[in-house]
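Handout, section 4.2: multi-component inputs.
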Amino acid sequence: MKAVAVIGIGKTAFGAFPDRDLRSLAVEAGQKCLADAHVSASQVEAFYLGNFAGPSFVGQNHLAPYVASGIGITNVPCTRFEAACASSGSAFFHAVSSVASGMYDLVLVGGVEKMTSQSTAKVTEILAGAGDCSGEVRVGATFPALFAMIARRHMHQFGTTREMMAAVAVKNHANGAKNPLAHMRKVITMEQALAGKPVSDPLTVYDCSLISDGAAAVMIAPLERAREFTDKPVKILGIAQTSDSVALDSKEDITTFRAVRMAGEKAYRMAGVTARDIEFAELHDCFTIAEIIATEDLEFVPKGQGGPYAIEGRTCLKGERPVNASGGLKAKGHPVGATGVGQICDVVMQIRGEAGELQLARHSLGLAENLGGSGATAVVTILGA
Amino acid sequence: MSKASATATVYSETVVHMAPAQFTADAPYQIAIVTFADESRRTVRIAGERVQIGDAVEFIEDRNSIPFFRRAL
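Output:
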């Protein structure tokens, strides 16, 4: 198996863009990525696109060649991946697999979602399609409701508090305020976070990630060829995608995501590192409780200690292991299909030392975790200089 | 639905304030994951008084294919 590197990245801003359509966002990210990688469209050997629900959000299907042709990529395999909020994480995993196998050298991976043209109630309904529509969704569960039940159980078993969850929101908003591409560039206080409008008890709007439009792209190549294109290749040291059942009520323990634990173990083993070595991470904070649980599942802290870990400031920009320096899904935004590749872009920017005001002191080994649904898909990637 | 005729224990719960489009008229409403005697779990709707983790609940009826439970009397 060949070692694989990221040789280019490209992102749009995340936000609500009434005058932009899905394709223009994805094409912008793809073209920025090609320019960053010093690769022309005609050199791209395959295009993998992550998108959760383009057909439902904007009525467009056959998305991969639809986007690729806009970038100028034709005559090569163009394929869409759907794995709920891990759609582009999954596209990235499969793209890396194809380059590692020797099938291709230059592969472009994109992710895109255009969500804000629908009402919040309609978005909520479309997102619920990532759950089990024959059970939990039919009863009236939304995604905030599923994570609210996860939060309630975590609070019950481990003494996690609403303040601990709010601390995640406060931190990620503080980071997002410094990210020029973030959707919500607004600092919030603990008091504001706790007094937010209720979405699904105990979660308020400040516990929930944003409904956003946006796109991201990365170019990958065999490590042995990376320096033909860039002076700053970033190595993909470990990567794993895992799965679990879709319905939350079929999981034995909802205070942990088994798929994340398994993906983390596999990625650490592949990279030859342990959790202790990880200097910073972009974790899938679709809800504040999800970041807390991710820090436990990825073994940054023992089970049940994710809440104290968050509120003690150890994951802040100047903490021992910064989490979501970008602002995370909470403040940067969560255009569902773009999120996984967007996280890879953010980790790569840190490793290259190009994160501007958000640049971390220690930035040579980072981890990205992308979660689909209530834990049915997980992708964990470890990147290094 | 033999399992639903039994009583169960609340494993976790939430009150949904922001509902999906098809349930906006019902909001706010409570849903719960409940555990039956055979350890199996199911997501159900709660009618009447709000329930908490550990509470015993009992099946009332299916309404539009949605199983409704309430605090056990």
